[in-house]
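lol ok so funny story. i was supposed to be doing the assay writeup but got distracted and ended up predicting the structure for this chain instead. priorities right. anyway since i did it might as well share w the group, maybe its usefull for someone
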Amino acid sequence: MPYTVIAYATMFSNVPLGIIYSSISMAVAYLAYGIVLSFLTAALTRLISSNQGKKTTHFRMWLCHRITIACHHRFAKLLSGTEAFCMYMRLLGAEVGKHCSIRAINPISDPKLISLGSGVHLGDFSRIIAGYYSSHGLVSGKVEVHDNSVVGSESLVLPGSILQKDVILGALSVAPVNSVLQAGGVYIGSQTPMMIKNTMHSLEDRIEEMDMKYKKIVGNLAANLAATTLKVKSRYFHRIGVSGKGTLKIYDNIKGLPDHKIFYPGKSYPVIVRHSNSLSADDDARIDARGAAIRILSDESSESSLFDLTLKTGKAFYARTIADFATWLVCGLPAREEYVKRTPHVRDAVWTSLRHANSYVELHYYSNICRLFRFEDGQEMYVKFKLRPSDENISEEAGKVEPIGILPPDTGAIPRSDNDTRPLLFLAKDFQSRVNAEGVRYIFQLQVRPVPRDEAARDIALDCTKPWSESEFPYIDVGEVNINHNLSAEQSEQLNFNPFLRCPEVDVIRASSCSQSASIDHGRSLIYEICQHLRNGAPLPEAWKIFLEQSDVKVDLSGCPMAVSLMKKDAQKVTLERTLFQALWISVGEGGFVGSRAIAMPGVRVEVGGSLSALSLAMKEEIIMSR
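and the output, tada:
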């Protein structure tokens, strides 16, 4: 303090009385003082840190913090919001990208643990804390804020947090310790921030409807299956199949079914049926679940589809929700066996799905998962579908497999017997020969039930691990499927059956949580489409690409036609990009009044109030900041 008093007294005694000259002299002197102070701070903190070695002492850490904070209070905080402050942060060891707007005036005690991408905006009085002391000791971690992200006014980013690209953290919100805010998300909240919107997924309503946990599970599933799809260039399940084309003729008289636009008496539709094994792609004699996928077309000429159905042998499925399905795939046989011991009906669902098969056309196929039926009078009901042989003498028990253990082998399909000499793909050849001879006939059936009023009862009705009571909800014969034309192996391979291909009268039931029974149909529809696009080399929409990138599984999308264009798009200009003249003017001309006003492009609406700062929302709409 005495030396400071002497220094200021000396300066004042030598300054002439002219106002302008005095002001310029004081400004130059203070700037020189600040520059010297900044360089000394950077040098001293580096010197102290370099002597720490591998072991960090609390005293040296505290000393570095105090030096950095002192420099901030004496000089650096006056640079807040300017390019000069970004340069100051880089000088102290922080990673700061181009065209950032740092309006935070709190001192950052650990600049080396701060990483800011290009075009980042830190709002007024927001705080980035890379380390603090608690009852558990020092909590420290690197804070990353990626390109074009916004931290709202008076918000808080705690150690270890990662804000991915194009994230908005709302005003007065908190990014918790070691949290990851996903790209494009708009987050609000203090204890647990909630994503209220994702700007990058706005074109995919199925993703928008999912909560965070649901997205994570579906994203990881999609990424795993997509990686396998890209590797083998084929389907994951039901890999090799045989297909035929024919017609679905609705009966003239249907008892027990209200008037329906699609299943209306006397109507006829072109259909495509594809049979396959679930896991056994190279040997039809293996004991496996057998499948029948049906595509109902609107008319012969346009080839436009009304909806797709995926059916299999067995009246039930082994997973009630998408979370159960994901766990089942990765947990291994011992864990599955422990699970089915507690839920015997799941064991029954697994074993009853397996079938010995002499012919695809001599088995019964069930949808397991139900859909929402909308009738012409406005009534809604749940519906399940069934495809059975036209020969009534073929019972539902045809090809039934007796359990030989708790669960089948981990591979899913049981190998053929040693004395079985049938050809590898005899089921496909049998189907083709039957179609060429007299055609193949099936009976198309529906099982309908009213939609329960109670949410818990609805979830029970949607549980695909338990079949509906046929005495209470009997199957209704609605039509006959006649297949009279074989499709080639190439045509069969190109077919894409998508559960989300539906019409308003036969709709998919949505889910918002991975714990809901409807989640398995809702979630798999997205996974099917992503994998089908990759398998066929079709362009992958940007929302799906980002969805895969946010999963825990990294997928190489270099084989996707959209990858190159999206990589180029990622190199777009940052939100706050400005010319050298603009940056110089911000740093020198208006440094003391940074951020006092903003100019929006025509048509941009900025709303003040609520949990998100108006500035943050405006920036996401490409607002041009004028300081």
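The two ends are 37 Å apart (CA to CA). Residues 49 and 57 are 10 Å apart (CA to CA).
back to the writeup now i swear
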